[in-house]
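Hey, resending since the last one bounced:
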Amino acid sequence: MNTYLPNDPRILIHGRTRVAAPLPLFWTGSGVEFYADGTELTFVLTADWSVFEQWIRVEIDGYSMLRMPLNKGENRVTVYRGLNAAEKRRVQLYKEVQAMPGDPDAMLLLDCIETDGDVYPVPEPAVRIEFIGDSLTTGEGLAGARNLQDWQACVFSTYKSYTQLVAKELNADVRLVAQSGWGTYCSWDHLPECAIPLYYDEVCGVIKGERNEKLGAHDPYDFSAWVPDVVFVNLGSNDCSGLFGFSEEGPEPFAKAMYDFLIHLREKNPGAYIIWACGLGTNELTDTAKETMDRYVKELDDGKTELLLIPDASEDEGPDVPGVMGSRNHPGPVSNRWEADAIEKAIRERLKI
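The structure tokens again:
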């Protein structure tokens, strides 16, 4: 049996992290990708948590082979055994669960990969996309029946999420910076410390705990090491809830936070197209987002930044159509496909691919 470390140059690493062995997997969708031959393959992972267990998903040649929670401590996860030794298979490991600020003990490490074959690199991706968002981006609601309302790790999934659908259609390497319930200025319940822009410059600054800090979560993020072609922002739903449902501040704080974040995004990603999405759940802040974007583009003379309006699938298909809504009253696979199609079209038009 051959053992390969996750920082082997033949293995593509997905997600913001400190490249090391073991490899910390912090954000939703973090993981690895490679080709492998041989008859069997096993991932060796180490997991821990106090509140929210860690889940993974593995695809072989684009199809899900397994999705499972991990035990505390070492986990030996055999993905397949007894297959044709000469055939190369594309293997993708995903972290299913978002980074959990409420559980400082939550941790997921990829220790190594074991196979009786060899590993090979995947082709260079055609495009790199950074997705910044909230629960629509973390995949909350994509696992479990529609009547499931418990906020637990099991309701998160990358399977049929709009970010992974776009990645497959565009042959893209994607990274996610996303937190359920968080916004541009505040959280759904009006907590200003739960704003994505505050932590954007760190590898994964949203999580806590001394161990996570030692693993590199609070390291300054090296924006030059992975340069995106597109930065896609899908924020506003929770700001809307926080500003109109839990306070009387009105839209002004969101407008300022959005404007400032756009300036910061351009500073950190000087060559990228920046697309800010409105539609799913933005509601009362849509007009504010339009006005803010118009002001930013005019004042900064930035022709590579724009607002994208995405229609809500539930309005066209109806919320009772199977797959439109998932668990926890969040968008299901149909809604995610709807959003992915709109994003894919927009990116193809801008990058001319």
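The CA atoms of residues 205 and 218 lie 5 Å apart.

Sorry for the duplicate.
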